[in-house]
Design goal:
Length: 154
């Protein structure tokens, strides 16, 4: 992905009155690393302002980070998350965003259902192998016990 335009260098007057956050505060609040936050900046999900060399995150950035982390928990790709978050902020009719979100969720559901089916098949195969191993161990133990009994009797 190409890097987004660099963030603005100073806060606009209206933004100065709104609460802001440092990268450390956001990292602690969401239990992620500052490196992860910088990565989300690199892919264009966040665009903090700058106050000198420091990043300054607005409520908008915090909300975008929160939505990004929710999307990651759902298993969405960063590209899917960015598309949805950008649509969320467009301020236009919600219907296209909701339809796009339903499409993404439907695709993701189908993928997870396929993975679940594959896992269930694999677990059934493992159960068969375990049963076979236990059967062989039991047969060998029974044979060894019979041999010991025969040796004692002789």
């Amino acid at each position: 992905m190409s890097a987004p335009a660099r963030p603005k260098t100073v806060l606009a007057p209206a933004e100065e009155a709104a609460p802001t956050f440092t990268i450390t505060e956001l990292a602690q609040e969401f239990d992620i690393t500052p490196r992860a936050i910088r990565f989300y900046e690199d892919v264009g999900l966040l665009q903090p302002a700058r106050a000198g060399r420091n990043r300054v995150y607005t409520h908008r950035d915090r909300t975008r980070l929160k939505l990004t982390l929710r999307g990651k928990r759902l298993g969405l790709t960063l590209q899917e998350i960015k598309q949805l978050v950008d649509m969320y902020e467009s301020g236009s009719d919600e219907r296209p965003q909701l339809e796009a979100f339903l499409g993404v969720l439907g695709d993701h559901r189908r993928q997870l259902e396929q993975q679940l089916e594959d896992i269930q098949v694999t677990l059934a195969e493992i159960a068969q192998h375990e049963a076979r191993c236990r059967s062989l161990i039991g047969a060998k133990s029974a044979k060894a016990a019979k041999a010991r009994a025969s040796a004692k009797a002789a």
